[in-house]
Structures are given as C-alpha cells and as structure tokens.
Amino acid sequence: MESSSSAAAAVAAEREPTVSQKEQWALESQVFHIYQLLYNIPPNSQAAMLELQRDSHMEYLVKGLLHLGPSFSVLDANRPWICYWIFHSIALLGESVDIALENNTIDFLSRCQDQHGGYGGGPGQMPHLATTYAAVNTLITIGGQNSLASINRAKIYSFLRRMKHTSGGFSMHEGGEVDVRACYTAISVASVLNILDEELVQGVGNYIVSCQTYEGGIAGEPGSEAHGGYTFCGLATMIIINEVNRLNLASLTDWLVFRQGVEGGFQGRTNKLVDGCYSFWQGGAAALIQRLHAAAAGSASSEVSDDEDSSDREEGQPSDDESSILIRRHTETEPLFQSQALQQYILLCSQVEGGFRDKPGKNRDHYHTCYCLSGLSVAQYSRSKDADSAPLPGSLLGPYSNLVEPVNPLYNIVLDQYDEARDFFSKAPAL
Amino acid sequence: MFRIRSKVKYKKTNKRRDSPPSAEIEMDSDEDVSTVLPLSQRPEWSDITPVPQNDGPNPVVPIAYSEQFAETMSYFRAVYLADERSVRTLLLTAEAIHLNAGNYTVWQFRRVIIEALNADLHDEFDLVEQLASKNSKNYQLWHHRRWVAEKLGTEAVSRELEFTKKIFLNDAKHYHAWSHRQWVLLNLGGWEDELAYCNELLEVDIFNNSAWNQRYFVITRHPKLGGIEATLDSEVDYTIKAILTKPENESSWRYLRGLYKNNMQSFVTNPKIPTLCLDVLTSKVYPVFALSLLLDLISNGFEPNQDLKNAVEAVVPESNSQGLDIAATICTVLEIIDRMRVNYWGWRKNNLRSQVAEGVANLSIH
C-alpha cells in the first residue's frame, strides 16, 4: 500500500482501533494461529487434525439424552429443542440410538404435547411454536410409524391458527412475541405435516418482505438489523409458501456472501464476529439461494420438469411440491461461499473433544453441535449433482470418514427422514 | 450451584438494591446471599399440594434440578393449573423466573395475574433489570418489558430509552435491546435525540452496524425528519466521509447503497458516488466495496468515464481483462482480490446481461 496516497488513509491511521476492530483482530489472530499449526504439519498429520471426531461426538450427544446437570435448568423450557439438537446431530453423523431410547423420546415428547395442540418446552408448559418445530423435527428424525403417528396434526393445525397474528405473522405462544422465527417455525411445521393452507399462509409473505432490510438480509422484526438466523427463517419460509420472488434476492445474496469472514466461518451480522452456528443459518440460506439459481438457470434453458404443471398456480398458493422439486433438482452450479474454508473453520475452530462451539475460547453446547454439523453437511454437499448423491471430488475437507448425511435445508432434517415423513403425511387424511 | 439437603433452608442470591444504576449491568450473581424458607415450610403455602413434573418413567434429556428448582416449579404447576391469581402466586412467579428466566409459561401467567390484580407495573422494571444484569439475551424478558411499556404508555419512554442505553454501554450491538428501543420509538415516541445518539455511537465505533441500522431506522421512520428524500443529501455526505475514513468498513458502504434502495435514478445520476469510488480506488486502501458499488452502479445503467475504468484496471494491473467490458473487468478483478467470494463474482459476471436489463427496466419505472 502507498503511504502517501490519500487523506483518508492518514485519518484512518491516526485513530485508536474501535471495540469492533479489537475484537475482530483478537479472534483473527487466534484462528490464524490454529491454521498455522495445520499448515506447518505434514499432509498425513493434517488429515488427522481435520478429522471429524465421530466417537467423541456420539458420546457427548448420547450422554445429553440420558443426563443433564443442574446448570441446564435455564433450558428447562427448551427440552424439545435439546432433543432436536441431539437427535439431528446423531442423524447427521449417520448414527442412531437404541430403540428403547427412541421410544422414551416419543413418550417424553407426547408429554410435552398440549391437549389443545402444539408442544411446550416441557410437560405441562404452554404450547410454543419453536418447541413445536423442535418436537416435530425430532419425531421425524426418529421416524417410523409410532413416532410420526404420535403427532396430532389436527390439533397442531388449530394451534397454528390460534397463533396467527393480525400482522400476518405468528405469535410464538399465546400472548407471545411476533417475529420471523415464529413465521418460519409455524410454516415449516405446517408444510412438513401437510396441513399448510391459505389461512395459514395469508399475510406471511407481506410480513417477511417488511423485514428485509436495506442491507439485503432479513431482520427479526421490521426495522431491526439484518441477521443470519432470521434471514434463513425468512428465506426458507418464502420458498415454502412459493413467494420467494417477492424478496430482493440480489441484495439478499450480496449481503449473504459477505457474511463469510476471513476465518472461513460465517458471522451473523455485518461487522460481528464469526460463530459456528451461522455455518448453517447462513450456509443453509446460501444453499437455498444456490438452488434458486439452479432452478432459474434450468427454466431459462427450458429444462423445467415436465411432470409438474405449475403454470396456473397463483402466487401465494402453498405448494410444497414446488419447493420439494427445488430441493431435489440440484445444482451443477458452484456454491456461493467457500465450502472448504467453512469446513476448516467448523473442524478446527468449532470442533472440540465431543461437541462443537461458537468459536475458540467458548464452551461447547448442543445447539452449536447441531448447527455446526448441519453447516458441515451443507458445505460438504454444496457441490453435488443431486440432493442426495455423494459430493463431487474435492468438495470434502479432511478424510472421507468426515462425510455426514445430507439435509433438506428448508427444514434442516436429514434427507432420508424428511422423505419418509413426506410420504407418511401425504397419505394422512385431510383435516 | 449449591446443593440443598433436607431440612436445610435453601439459599437464594439477592440483588443489592442500593447499587448505583450504572453498576447494575456489571453485577454478577455471587453477591450477598440470604436464606429463604422452602415453600413446603412456609405457612402461607400449606394449603397447596405441589404438582410434580410428569416426566414419565424413562424421561430423556432429564435435568438434575436443584431441590429449590424442583419444588418451586411444583408449586407453580399447582397454582397454574388452579389458575390462582393472587398476591402469593405473583410472588411465586418471580421466584420461578429468577430460577429460569426462559420459562415463557411462568412469564405469561405472571401477566395474567398482574392484570387480574391490577398490580403495580413499575415493580416489573425492577424484576427485568435484575434479570438483565445476569443475562439479558432472553426473548421472554424483553417481551415482558415491551408489554409493560405498552401498558404504561408515554410515561415509559425515557426510562426505556435509558435502560437500553445502559445495555449498549456493555454491548452496543445487543439485538433484543435494539428491537426494544425501536419499538418504544415507534409506539411511544422519544425521537428527539435519536439521530444524535446514533452519531455518538458511530463516533465511538464506526464499525457498529447496529448503530448504522438504527440510523437508517431514524432517517426512514422519524416523524419529523421528512424521510429519506429530505435527508438524502446530508446522509450521503455523512456516509461518504465515514467511508473515506475507513474504506474497509462494510457497514458504511451498505448504508450508502441502502439510501438509494428505492431511488435508482438518483443513485446512478449523483456524481458523488462514482467520485467516491474513484477516490477509494486511487487511494488503494481497500478496493472491494468500491468495486462492488461501482458494479451496482453500472448494472443500473451508469456509464463510467475513462478515469474510473483506468482506476479499476490499476487495481490488479496484471489481470488480463483486455476485450472485456468494464463490468466484466470489475468482476474479474474481484475474483482475484476477494477470494472468499470468487464464485459469487463469477456468478455476477455470468449474469451481467440480465442484471443490466433488469436495472435499466427498474430505471424506467422510477
């Protein structure tokens, strides 16, 4: 860089670093130190350093299902979430737990199911949209007749209707907050259970469009700051309800790709630190955008699938068929993010002995374990011909044993489990 | 954590009420401890039969609750099921919330009781502030605070603005606190000093994207500033200055672009924007955002002069961009210097024609 160049550079050099800069630089030096270790060892040791520690992760996950210490009392209203984080992680690893533990989970979640519909954070708690999403996704991940049939679709539908808010969005629970999370969890659950209808969809698109910010990402509420979690929720919702083209996808994409930091991981917001959990929230959103691009390219070259006639469908009409085709029909396009860099961050900076964390210096937890593994899956399969075919050579970082299962990124459910549920609920009686 | 043996009074951390407000956020939970009787030993609760949690014979994700936690929640379940709205249940909800501020059922029942008793809403501020001093990243706490503020109306304004300000001293990007502050401004008012407050925060940390977002909120929603149209010129000047100070600051570039979100015509016709790009490119500090903005300008119909083209080509003199038009050259340069987004810039390059077509179409609409 020229030192004499401009007044701007001179002014920039004068000032003390700000809080944002200091935090960013401290993290960068920590992360680059870790990467230095990798680059300075021979290639065969590199593979060992990059290995996904399957056994220790399984040990950590199964232990959580069986016992949680007193400090988990602050998550006492999130127990279906803990189930989902653990079961989804196990499914991503391609593993399972014994039948008894699965049956215990089905039994426990049925105790969280409210008599008027929906699941609460624990037995006897009010039904809540987020824990309903977590419980339904857990039961789908467990799979099988008993598990899927334990979900009372009709009552969930009436719960969802009761949560519908005048803004077009949803309240998290009776008297609860209204935000983009609530829209996503409600619409995701309704879609996967095959109970999505006009009444539930009405106004959701308007609400989400009103949450897209000047930056391009989506905020939790109108006016708030663009944020990775809400961007995933908003984008996935808009795809499910078939209104995604109402978003400004160019600005959303531009914002999204800039969220991948020099560390390889994703940050949740502009000028914030990277965090392993955004590997999925941002990486999953990027995977959805990639599929939209592929679909657009497909239809532009008139390769639209011939078995689905969607031309006479009106905007706003729910059509999980279309979103399902979108997920299936992959992508010979390149991912919009650096897949290898993301995998490196997840494996070297988030992975610990049993579980994953936000960043170096933080503690592991089940939430980060779930979303780091989900992000790892999205990154590994970001270059593959079909949704469930093996990644193209060179897409996987580390040894081949690192390969995890593919997910349906709209719902963040492992693909095989999603397919089983879709089949099961498509045969379920209309409400 | 502490263990409670039977017949031993359990301990409860108590917040000091006399500490100065500014210290509240810093306070940790290991302050003075006092003892409270277990509920089963309090005479006023003797008529209630606690309801244990129905976890079933083989629960999964079982939590090893402390005795105090398990007992408090069992009494809570009993009164919640009986729908008892009384002073004692109001007090009980506070005890339960202190044990787990994430229990939305308890919070919701507390609101039901408050309404039934017509209880003093001002007590809720203390509760929320005590909890926020321990952990303020919790949806329930902020939802409750909003509910209280909504009930109190305009009298809550200054208190809420101060409360969020105090949070920002510790974490200037606190998502819940910003949402709360915006809700207060929109619904109860208090806009007077908000732009000055944004200036203040950006003065301290120009990389604070939450402050930039708040600035956008003020510019677009302030009832008396006249919206973006009235403030566009001064905002553009302010932002250009901020960009020239730190060209690597994405927040200011996004803000500048955002000012023109619905006004493509002025975006491509304001000479200050390409001048800014030229200044940054020739200063050679951090060209990515300047190139990206220039690409946006061109995609929307702007035609760069020779100086700009030369500046673009000078960023990576060795790049072989001969024969490419300027937009494609920008993409190529970005592919080289912004490796993390190499696929994105490649995709932009492949879609240039449709982007320009769309951009020009947009122009004719506005």
From TrEMBL, chain A:
Pfam family, one: Prenyltrans
Co-factor: note: Binds 1 zinc ion per subunit.
Top EC class, one word: transferase
Cofactor: Zn(2+)
One GO CC term on file: protein farnesyltransferase complex
Catalyzed reaction equations: L-cysteinyl-[protein] + (2E,6E)-farnesyl diphosphate = S-(2E,6E)-farnesyl-L-cysteinyl-[protein] + diphosphate
GO biological process, one term: prenylation
Record's keyword annotation contains Cell inner membrane: no
E.C. designation(s): 2.5.1.58
Chain intervals for the UniProt region annotation (Disordered): 299-325
Zinc recorded as keyword: yes
Gene3D superfamilies (UniProt xref): 1.50.10.20
Record's subunit section: Heterodimer of FTA and FTB.
Protein family per UniProt: Belongs to the protein prenyltransferase subunit beta family.
Protein known as: Protein farnesyltransferase subunit beta
Source organism per UniProt: Helianthus annuus
Gene that this sequence comes from: FNTB
UniProtKB/TrEMBL annotation, chain B:
Coiled coil, from the record: none
Alphabetical list of InterPro entries matching this protein: Prenyl_trans_a
Recorded GO CC terms: CAAX-protein geranylgeranyltransferase complex; cytoplasm; protein farnesyltransferase complex
Catalytic activity reported: geranylgeranyl diphosphate + L-cysteinyl-[protein] = S-geranylgeranyl-L-cysteinyl-[protein] + diphosphate; L-cysteinyl-[protein] + (2E,6E)-farnesyl diphosphate = S-(2E,6E)-farnesyl-L-cysteinyl-[protein] + diphosphate
UniProt cofactor(s): Mg(2+)
Gene3D superfamilies according to UniProt: Protein prenylyltransferase
Region (Disordered): 1-33
GO MF annotations, alphabetized: CAAX-protein geranylgeranyltransferase activity; protein farnesyltransferase activity
GO biological process: peptide pheromone maturation
A Pfam family per the record: PPTA
Keywords tagged on the record: Magnesium, Prenyltransferase, Repeat, Transferase
Residue stretches of biased makeup (Basic residues): 1-15
EC number: 2.5.1.58, 2.5.1.59
The UniProt record lists the keyword Plastid: no
Protein's job: Essential subunit of both the farnesyltransferase and the geranylgeranyltransferase complex. Contributes to the transfer of a farnesyl or geranylgeranyl moiety from farnesyl or geranylgeranyl diphosphate to a cysteine at the fourth position from the C-terminus of several proteins having the C-terminal sequence Cys-aliphatic-aliphatic-X.
Family that this chain belongs to: Belongs to the protein prenyltransferase subunit alpha family.
Protein name: Protein farnesyltransferase/geranylgeranyltransferase type-1 subunit alpha
Naturally occurring in which organism (per UniProt): Helianthus annuus (Common sunflower)
